[in-house]
Amino acid sequence: MAPFVETDETIQSEELVAPQAAPWKYEIVYPAVLGMGYIHLAAIYGLYLAVTAAQWYTLVFSAFTAVAAGIGLTAGAHRLWSHRAYKAKPPLQILLMIMQSIAFQYSALTWAKLHRTHHRYSDTDADPHNATRGFFFSHMGYLMVKSHPEFRKRVKLMDFSDLYSNQILMLQHKYTILFCFTFCLLLPTVIPVYLWGESLSVAWHVSMLRYVYNMHTTFLVNSVAHMFGSGTYDKSIKPTQNVFVSLLIFGEGFHNYHHVFPWDYRTAELGNNWLNPTKLFIDFFAWVGWAYDLKTVSDDVISARAERTGDGTNSWGFKTKSS
Predict the structure, then answer these.
(1) In the chain, where does DSSP find H-type helix?
(2) What's the whole-model pTM score?
């Protein structure tokens, strides 16, 4: 079914009645709880095996796939498809689609739909991981309960026509389980076993460890970066500047900036290159010619917004000279 296309009247009426957090009875999805339980137990055992039994080839390979999965999310599902902060030619889109499949966090299309809805209705009942419901809910609890009725209502009003018209995204979306199982679980398990003789148990459980690590680093943006840090650019919203999160998730922790300027492909003021490997990845492919039309915000606009609505601190939490 074709998505509903927003009009100015629709957007205005939605924003006037933006849903706020209200009492809500959680409906637990028990298969999701069991699944979460298994992968976390498997990851704990994988950590033990990584320390006691895994070959160093396996550990290096797992680290490489973790980075690939993270960049697939940050450069692909997030900055390219959710926010259209830059454009990518088909070869780069295919590469990012495969890398996002390693993360196994829905299809990139579904990920982008959820994320756009999160931005439109941030920290309200229509936000799929509403931070006003507490740390655990916004971090991972939302995956184990049925989504809020307000979210199910509002997501149908969003315009996702660009996502549905993208043949690469639609291919992955149609065969989500095949793509994600193959690139997230099957190949990362089979490759160590057949190429350097790792045991099947070690290969599988270290893959589970990498998978859970990628999940939690992503979740930190929804939880920690909505609760702890500074409101450098807009002190009236919950998203914050959190350097710790940026260290773990390739530059995604400058979250107050990102919610104020979501179209900036850097997701951080001045790029913050040394904390922003995703920007460097996109810059490299811009140099190659596969990425283009990179969107940024001018320094003057950034400074003016910080002065007008910010809290008088910079990204490191220190007071600015003018405050």
Answers:
(1) 8-16, 30-52, 56-71, 90-103, 108-120, 135-139, 149-155, 161-164, 167-174, 176-180, 187-196, 200-222, 243-248, 255-260, 277-288, 299-309
(2) 0.89
